[in-house]
Amino acid sequence: MEIVGRVQQHLFPDDGNGPDAARLNADRYLLWVLSDPRKDPGDIRYIINGIGWVDETAHEEYEKSFLELNGREQAELIDFIAGEAWGSSWLSIILTFIFEALVADPQYGGNVGEAGWDWLNHFAGIPRPTEKLLYGNILNTVKAR
Question: Are the beta carbons of 124 and 117 closer than 8 angstroms?
Fold first, then answer.
């Protein structure tokens, strides 16, 4: 997940104009998504495999792990994999989950302190979901009826 966190930070950096991926807890949000038993196992494998592909590409291009690369090398590698079919697709998925972390209810692990909502001038709907009505739990409630 450290690789994902660094890739997310490259895709959604701290540029002084709103929250970055780290402040949004985008990596934790992605972990929550990956833990969803209703998520397509193939989609989960693709995301996880992509982490390995990033590291493999770092070894091929720099002869060291992605985590051992300096910031400039990591940025160059991400730009390189964006030109690969698998890389473009994988990065698009990772970016999609950053956007979800930006706008999701903080109860799901992203959008810490409603930072994304504040940045977007968004006001949450009321009432917000209770624990019983959060995604996952609501499905159990519906089944019980």
Answer: yes
